[in-house]
Structure prediction request, 370 residues.
Amino acid sequence: MLECASARPDAPRLAGLLRKTDWAFLLELAEEHGVLNLVAARIREFDETVVPAESRALLIERQRAYALSALSLIAEMIRILERFGEAGIPALVLKGPALSLQAYGDATARQYGDVDLLVRQRDIYRVTELMTLAGFHADVPLAAVAADRIPGEYLFSRTNTKVIVEVHTEKTLRYFPNSLAIEELFERHVTLEFDGHDLPTLSKEDALVSACTHGAKHCWERLMWIADVAAMLNRQTSMNWEEVARIAENLGARRIVNTGLLLVAELLHAPVPASVEEKARADRWARKLVGRIQTWLPTAGEASPGLLRRALFRSQMRGGFLPGIGYLTRLLLSPTEEDWRAGHEHKGSRILETGRRLVRLAGKYGRDSN
Prediction:
């Protein structure tokens, strides 16, 4: 699976591995890691002496199903962007089809099940109105938005369909150690073309830092997040590394990016420039974090770190003892919609909400499955 997800796979080695593969297990693991599309793309290069016809057919069938789902989401995303444009609300596409285009050159190449958009916090009330008028259910109601309740994301879903839209703002993206300079993101944004439509998204440098931060948010438990970074580096050969370093430094994400770069270099043969890799390897804590990640990566989250190890991981990936403690404290003590009680429109006791959050996190991660 690593060879299939590699930025530069070794065809003879991959053929030898495929001949010895337990196909049922490989397909199950690829599904859990979100890289089934990558596996399907690689096996097309081999004949039936390497890939059994039944396994090939199953992979291609699933790949087509993902492609159709992605196209449906993209169509919905384009309609939403048009509504936002008519209302004068700028928005950027995060992850999903935009990252797929930047990293793989194909909007349906990577697996994703929702649409992620970034808007300014000041526009979120109007965004919620527009999404509601378009037939979406708002997980965070207008009353809560008016009361300035800040969730983990503003989630919208359409009844009786699988369409989910997550809208983010500079206040919901909490996993960047420092505050997000959203105006700079909009200034640096680029526009991608898909089927005659423009998709506004992050610059490749911002997208790289964002992809590393997203992977770190999830403790890099699934291979898909590592594969995205590797594919981005393989395709975006004109990456401005000075700009990447500046963005990461401003966001307090230098070690987060170092960890991501070492992961893709060691596991997926990504073309990280020698000077950039040397600087990343000089960060001994980034090297240690890569070692830890590799202990839980094979299980795709089934043996994820428990609460204490997860807390330690979060503090160490920030870089520096005091900054790490501050970052961890902010993440632990910032309630989201999962910690609110009924009555979203009223701000409750911050102490009670923080207490509920700690109890919820203890219940979710308290037992170390290792």
